[in-house]
Design goal:
Layout lengths: L8 H13 L5 E2 L1 H5 L1 H7 L4 E7 L12 E8 L7 E7 L3 E8 L4 E9 L9 H8 L4 H24 L6 E8 L1 H7 L22 E2 L12 E4 L9 H10 L8 E5 L3 E7 L4 E7 L19 E7 L6 E5 L7 E2 L1 H13 L18 E4 L2 E7 L10 E4 H24 L9 E5 L8 H6 L11 E5 L1 H11 L2 H12 E3 L6 H9 L12 H9 L12
Parallel strand pairs: 1-3, 4-7, 7-9, 10-19, 12-21, 13-15, 19-20
Antiparallel strand pairs: 2-3, 4-5, 5-6, 8-9, 10-11, 11-12, 13-14, 16-17, 17-18
Helix pairs in contact: 4-5, 7-11, 7-12, 9-13
Length: 521
């Protein structure tokens, strides 16, 4: 400013933004005005301004209205970061993103602290109805988020004040609890969320340890049991951009599936339980170093060879390891198609315990825990229930739109452990439809993928809203077809051999192409 041009600091700032970046119709947060004068002078009239989209476009042709949320002295554009989170029922995954360079610089995951209060969304909704229950669950998931943020900062040496915004994807229940909104009506007919679209929320107001100006974006939900995590996955995978007939499945505690393309989409949720993420399994753990993820069993002596994440000594079994193990047990005749162990085989690996039988994957001296790592009949039953829910959901949804499982051009598999799944083995147990392997695409954590891409591109906020609006939800909780399909799928791979003709033929021949040992079913 000079005596000839002594317009206000704010007017000068807005004029600069209009001239340099063609930004007009800006709104300004008051905390920015409070520190404006000092910041401009500290930087010798050079400053970095952070603007935020206050809303996505509800209709084509509408314009966004950016708002100024922060100002810093000097040029700090190369120190601009954001956080992306997948808030899962079982695990929370976070990434620290370098916005200037468009890359991930740190990543961490942890069990959702809410798991101590219930392993699935129904028990957590019920817990929220207790006095102080909602506040407690909100606090523990925020504590999990803060722990992950601390870990990300330790990995990257990025200070909290350098973080500009947060994007979060989660199922409808997890999103509402995080926002402190009572989820009780999500489980009551007619299953209504508080809202499908939420405006940005000051992250600090929820207890998240970031600067006051940081806003948190949450992905829109479709219905009570089809939330922002599935919308995020669809956006991340680009399903909404192509005509390809796609079957999209997000394998987790709350398994969600989508069938469709850029013209139409139908979706449903089928509660699979925590088995796919290591929950509810005696020696189940998340996919971390030391988790058994690959298993091969010698069909002659029934001795296992296990592979672990990071090639470390085993300490548990992750979701993909569970699938691979059960497939191997089935292929070698150690278990029958009902999931029960064959007690007559000549191996000490199968042994009797109080609740049935179990198979020893790793002996105590081989493990990090100093105890045997086993898979039990109860574990196998939990997996069978989980895979039955997912496959029955696929059958029910396909029938609702008049297509068969063989009609899919591609199957996109999402989930924290998705990229570790062996397609052949997943088909063997009846989790995936029996299609050529080249039609399967793995994207890993689709929820986190969409959150990350949206953090880099505000245009994808519009896509997320459009995807949520175009999805037609099918409620399975009271669907007779789903229940019939579910019961039929409680078998390995399925009670109807016609659903898995190649697998059924292979199992009938038994290991080493010899007639299979008869197992009482």
């Amino acid at each position: 400013p000079t005596l000839d041009d002594n317009t206000s600091d704010l007017s000068r700032l807005l004029r600069g933004l209009r001239q340099r970046y063609h930004l007009s119709n800006l709104s300004i947060d008051f905390p920015v005005i409070q520190k404006l004068a000092k910041t401009l002078r500290d930087g010798d009239w050079k400053a970095t301004v952070t603007t935020l989209v206050t809303a996505v476009k509800p209709r084509a042709g509408d314009r966004r209205r950016p708002r100024v949320i922060n100002i810093e002295a000097g040029d700090t554009r190369d120190k601009h970061y954001s956080l992306a989170f997948d808030i899962g029922t079982t695990t929370v995954c976070g990434q620290l993103l370098d916005l200037s360079r468009g890359r991930v610089i740190a990543e961490s995951m942890a069990y959702n602290g809410q798991i101590s209060y219930g392993e699935d969304v129904i028990t957590r909704i019920a817990y929220c109805q207790k006095t102080g229950g909602l506040k407690k669950l909100q606090q523990v998931v925020v504590a999990t988020i803060n722990d992950i943020i601390s870990e990300l900062q330790a990995q990257s040496h990025v200070e909290a004040e350098r973080i500009s915004h947060i994007t979060v994807a989660g199922n409808t229940t997890m999103t509402q609890i995080l926002l402190g909104l009572n989820p009780q009506y999500l489980r009551l007919t007619p299953y209504t969320p508080v809202a499908n679209f939420f405006p940005p929320v000051p992250a600090g107001s929820l207890g998240i340890k970031v600067s006051d100006h940081v806003q948190m974006f949450t992905f829109p939900a479709v219905a009570s049991y089809v939330g922002g995590d599935i919308v995020s996955g669809i956006v991340g995978a680009g399903v909404h951009q192509r005509k390809t007939l796609t079957f999209f499945m997000d394998i987790g505690t709350n398994g969600e599936i989508v069938i469709g393309n850029s013209d139409w989409m139908v979706t449903a949720s089928c509660s699979a339980g925590p088995a796919f993420e290591g929950g509810g399994i005696r020696h189940g753990i998340i996919a971390a170093e030391g988790a058994i993820e690959d298993v091969k069993i010698n069909p002659k002596n029934f001795e296992p060879e296990v592979g672990t994440i990071g090639n470390a000594r085993p300490k548990g079994i992750c979701g993909s390891g569970l699938i691979n193990t059960v497939a191997e047990l089935l292929e070698t005749g150690l278990i029958g198609q009902n999931g029960k162990f064959n007690q007559e085989l000549p191996t000490r690996r199968v042994r009797s315990v109080t609740d049935g039988y179990e198979y020893v994957l790793a002996q105590a001296e081989e493990t990090q825990t100093g105890s045997d790592i086993v898979i039990t009949e109860v574990d196998i039953d939990n997996l069978m229930r989980a895979k039955a829910a997912m496959y029955a959901g696929c059958q029910t949804l396909s029938k609702s739109v008049g297509i068969g499982g063989c009609d899919f051009d591609q199957v996109i598999i999402a989930g924290a452990f998705g990229s570790h799944i062996d397609v052949k083995r997943a088909i063997t147990i009846g989790l995936l439809p029996e299609l050529p392997e080249e039609r399967f695409i793995f994207i890993g954590n689709g929820s986190l993928l969409g959150a990350r891409l949206t953090s880099f591109s505000t245009d994808l906020l519009d896509d997320a809203r459009r995807v949520a609006q175009m999805m037609t939800n099918l409620e399975l909780s009271e669907n007779v077809d789903f229940m019939n399909n579910y019961v039929a799928a409680l078998f390995l791979p399925h009670t109807n051999a016609g659903e898995f003709p190649r697998v059924s033929k292979r199992l009938a021949r038994g290991p080493n192409n010899n007639p299979k040992t008869r197992v009482k079913i």
